[in-house]
Amino acid sequence: MEATDFISIRDASKWASTYLQKKVTPSNISYLVQYGRIKKFEENSSVMISKAELKEYYQNYHSNKREEWTEILGEDLNWALSFDQYREAETTKHVHRLHPYKGKFIPQLVEYFLDTHTDKFKDKVFFEAGDIVLDPFVGSGTTLVQANELGIHAVGIDISAFNIMMAACKINEYNLGLVQAEFDKITAMLSQNPDTLKSIAFEEKLLQALRGFNSKYFPSPEYKRQIRTGEIDEKAYAFPKEAEFLPQYQALIEEYGIDLLTDSHQGFIDKWFIAQIKKELEMVSRYIKSIADANTKRIVALTLSRTMRSCRATTHADLATLNEPVTTTYYCAKHGKICKPLFSILKWWKTYSKDTIKRLKQFNKLRTNTKQVGITGDSRNIDIIEKVNNIDPQFAKLIQENKIKGIFTSPPYVGMIDYHEQHAYAYELFGFERKDEMEIGPLYKGQGKEAQNSYVEGISQVLINAKPYLKEDYDVFLVSNDKYNLYPEIAKRAGMKIVNQFKRPVLNRTEKDKGAYSEIIFHLKQDKTGSKA
Fold it and tell me: What is the DSSP letter of 60?
């Protein structure tokens, strides 16, 4: 390899941006180095990489992925709708990342069908500024936020009270000075709490010990590269080292008198949060209840929920799908070193409260003067006008007079996600009523024939219930991985017909699931051939 082939991290990001025709940041390149995807070289005390190796990595990654996914998922994949040209910061822009949500679609997909552009796939404009769009499975509120950006009014419905709170927090307007003041009060409260100070001192000592141990036995990025190349057997090497560090951890626990899990296992919080974190959560939650302004109270509560999720007693690799509580140091397959659980919420609270203010400010620059309302209820039978009227009578009148132009939503999938359980910690801490039994296609019912029939009936009823509120020439877009081919029957029962469908590859669905996966955007319209719902 010639020395002239070496380039800096910054120059590599510029080259990769041109090569891939999308923005590649120095952080993106550093990630590849850190995780052993490409080697780093030292030149005059600077980190350098090989341009040839970087090019080979991108060629293999992109060409292999397209070929492999097309072979698995079919030739009809629409790669234009993968939106792989967008960086993660763009697919989680502004308020879309105020809180994690399993199963949400990216905002670019909503924009594609709601905005006024046309292309060789989308040959017609379906929604225009001033129209009203309905999302009967609003989830985390992506459709409502993008409708606002585009000057479109929107109504979102969800059976989950927490989902409606999440969506409302994204579209609400705030007195940011008041929100910041409440954030600062909570930060001060935690920073002055004696138990929190003890936990922080303990963690600092623990981190010091971990840094020394990890630099000796898991040097980065060399160790990760050796795992990738097969030079080291990860399990045979790492887990004895995990056991080797454990006595140091246990000695520090004893020295600082740190309590781990509580004796009671009555609920989710008892099981999944270390005792000190549970105390902090309860303290902050009590304070939030005293906040007078309703909008401020909700956004502060959502920020605590986001913090809470990151502080569960689990490994970094299992954050999306909890396995067993972890209260000791452990070998982390995600980071390739010995990691630890958390003992205070302070660090993440400070990070997320700062991030929340930043994201709210970003969205304020894009916000349009349109109406978006989220309502809690069952989309199979909810009276939309009545519910909206309770929140915004003017908007209810607008819906009644103008009617809704169409639907853009991602219905739940059959037996894949427990939509209430994914936020069980928030339901428990804030006292939301759970309505698991009213979910359509819940995880606990599985994916058998009976579950499929129940799902078809449920989604059909949602569409039937929505029809009286829709314009005559409505457009309905349903995003689904329809592996059981249920949507033709759903459309038929609802008195609709599928006029088009777009099959898109879905990239990086969760923290762990990177396998080949696609979903179809079904475009439905009224069936005027005489079939009745």
Answer: H
